[in-house]
Amino acid sequence: LPSPRTLWPTWLPSLRCRRLWIVTLLAGTKQTHSFLLDVKGKPCEDHCILQHSNRICVITLAGSHPVLQSGKTIKSISYQISTNCSRLQNKVSGKFKRGAQFLTELAPLCKIYCSDGEEYTISSCVRGRLMEVNENILHKPSILQEKPSTEGYIAVVLPKFEESKSITEGLLTQKEYEEVVVKRLRATTAAS
């Protein structure tokens, strides 16, 4: 098979093959991990952006997100953002990705509902076109917690070419993120 250089290779005929390609892309080493902390001012609601060398960005939950940390049980996940907007209705076609929904940095991608009544809105974190959402987490929400950075990804976003280099501006690197998480842990233990 050819290397995953193009955005959606022509040798991927089905959506299932594309999802496998995304998981393979995530498992590779050609990606940059960037983190957005306290999204929309909500403490510890951290997101991770995996940017591949071909500029595709995969949005996932950061390891410090409450859904992954607190031993919560996910009741359901919804890509229905409002009565008029569903990320599941995103239909992308052609070389220029016509029909893709355009997202701003803080555009909601999905909502996660937990059994304890908590609700979390996951944001895009990246300006660009929505290529696809992970429908597998709708049927099996547990993979979001079990494999958040591979099979449990939230969505795939394609930024504009001219903006692809500046995506990581304002985001934390892996090392910076780990330092912040350690500081949070120290502050929590000191307060206890």
UniProtKB/TrEMBL annotation:
<protein>
    <recommendedName>
        <fullName>Protein Abitram</fullName>
    </recommendedName>
</protein>
<dbReference type="GO" id="GO:0030426">
    <property type="term" value="C:growth cone"/>
</dbReference>
<dbReference type="GO" id="GO:0051489">
    <property type="term" value="P:regulation of filopodium assembly"/>
</dbReference>
<feature type="signal peptide">
    <location>
        <begin position="1"/>
        <end position="34"/>
    </location>
</feature>
<dbReference type="InterPro" id="IPR039169">
    <property type="entry name" value="Abitram"/>
</dbReference>
<dbReference type="GO" id="GO:0003785">
    <property type="term" value="F:actin monomer binding"/>
</dbReference>
<dbReference type="GO" id="GO:0048813">
    <property type="term" value="P:dendrite morphogenesis"/>
</dbReference>
<keyword id="KW-0732">Signal</keyword>
<dbReference type="InterPro" id="IPR033753">
    <property type="entry name" value="GCV_H/Fam206"/>
</dbReference>
<dbReference type="Pfam" id="PF01597">
    <property type="entry name" value="GCV_H"/>
</dbReference>
<dbReference type="GO" id="GO:0016607">
    <property type="term" value="C:nuclear speck"/>
</dbReference>
<comment type="similarity">
    <text>Belongs to the ABITRAM family.</text>
</comment>
<dbReference type="GO" id="GO:0051015">
    <property type="term" value="F:actin filament binding"/>
</dbReference>
<dbReference type="GO" id="GO:0032433">
    <property type="term" value="C:filopodium tip"/>
</dbReference>
<dbReference type="GO" id="GO:0030833">
    <property type="term" value="P:regulation of actin filament polymerization"/>
</dbReference>
<dbReference type="GO" id="GO:0030425">
    <property type="term" value="C:dendrite"/>
</dbReference>
<dbReference type="InterPro" id="IPR011053">
    <property type="entry name" value="Single_hybrid_motif"/>
</dbReference>
<dbReference type="GO" id="GO:0030027">
    <property type="term" value="C:lamellipodium"/>
</dbReference>
